[in-house]
Specification:
The chain contains eleven helices and 18 strands. It has 332 residues and is of the alpha/beta class. The structure holds zinc ion (ZN) (2 copies).
Length: 332
């Protein structure tokens, strides 16, 4: 079978591998569609903090079950939850496998699904009834946004600020809007903000935090979501949280961040981490597709074959600022 492998930093190739082994309780999948995301570009560029090469990438996956097993029938379309959790640690036993202490992410810590076939634990597969193969491959990245929105416990009418108008910020904003919040975007890229307005209907966009604050008469936002991956931007975001509001850190940075405790305290601010997603978030996204509240065509910047990706991956990585999602189709 074919696999798409980051052989070493800067080097990607399509290689031949034997079909995967299928341990007891795992299910063999024929991969259909794979989304390419920031993590994949970082792996290609050698910027991922803990990664061994060579690595078969691919964690945003839709697939058809290859043969009857573990309650699934051959041909069933499934979404793959790529976070393999241990099931026994403190987080797992308290219903939070998304932040398992020994988490292994397909395509990061172990070989992923940019391949003709992949074996995955049955518990990590969710039936994608009513979705297209491409929609099903978009569920994972959107589930990260759905999880972030859920973490904030939004109420209708809440003022929400999303900083960072990339794919994760966009997913967060889409689910904040579904929760009937009023969403404002903040980003330094005018092109990204134009995409948020013109393609996704988010009319309130700003390039400077002071301009966003002015639209609230200085009160700030009931929930601020950081999706920038930038420590200085994370620090600046504290000032945009309203009294009684929440700050959800969706992106992660290597640096320390600092904030003024009196400002934090007087707001009685909730500071919330948001990592990966839970099954409930995957289900929220699938229902949003079924209800036609999310448009896969709008999210898809380009569709490539595996061989086309090999030829264009470095070029896409170098010029990805305005891409939403590049999708790789392995089979219909
Ligand atoms: Zn991703
Ligand atoms: Zn665990």
């Amino acid at each position: 079978m074919r696999v798409g492998t980051c052989v070493a930093p800067g080097s990607f190739a399509v290689e031949e591998r034997p079909a995967p082994e299928v341990p007891e309780g795992w299910v063999l999948l024929d991969i259909c569609s794979v989304g390419i995301c920031g993590t994949d570009y970082h792996i290609l560029e050698g910027k991922h903090p803990f990664l061994n090469y060579p690595r078969v990438i691919g964690h945003e996956l839709s697939a058809r079950v290859a043969r009857d097993s573990a309650g699934f029938a051959a041909g069933d379309l499934v979404v793959v939850n790529p976070y393999l959790a241990c099931g026994t640690c403190r987080a797992c036993t308290r219903g939070k496998p998304n932040c398992c202490m020994a988490i292994e992410v397909l395509g990061v810590h172990r070989d992923g699904g940019l391949a003709d076939q992949l074996a995955v634990p049955a518990g990590n597969l969710y039936p994608a009834t009513g979705l297209t193969t491409r929609e099903a491959a978009m569920v994972e990245f959107l589930a990260i946004g759905a999880h972030a929105a859920a973490r904030a416990e939004l109420r209708p009418g809440d003022r929400v600020l999303v900083t960072g108008a990339g794919p994760i910020g966009l997913g967060t904003a889409l689910f904040a809007r579904i929760a009937e919040a009023e969403v404002t975007f903040l980003d330094i890229s005018p092109a990204r903000l134009a995409t948020m307005r013109d393609t996704f209907g988010f009319d309130a966009t700003h390039g400077a935090i002071a301009d966003a604050m002015a639209t609230t008469e200085g009160d700030g936002f009931d929930a601020v979501f950081d999706a920038t991956g930038n420590a200085r931007a994370i620090e600046a975001g504290f000032a945009a949280v309203a009294h009684g509001g929440s700050y959800v850190l969706v992106s992660v940075v290597k640096d320390d961040i600092t904030f003024a405790d009196p400002e934090f305290h007087k707001r009685e601010m909730r500071l919330i981490g948001s990592r990966n997603a839970l099954r409930a978030d995957f289900e929220t996204v699938m229902q949003a597709f079924r209800d036609r509240r999310i448009d896969a065509d709008a999210l898809c910047s380009a569709t490539l074959t595996l061989e086309e990706l090999a030829g264009r991956f470095a070029g896409l990585a170098a010029d990805r600022a305005d891409l939403v999602k590049v999708m790789v189709d392995l089979r219909p």
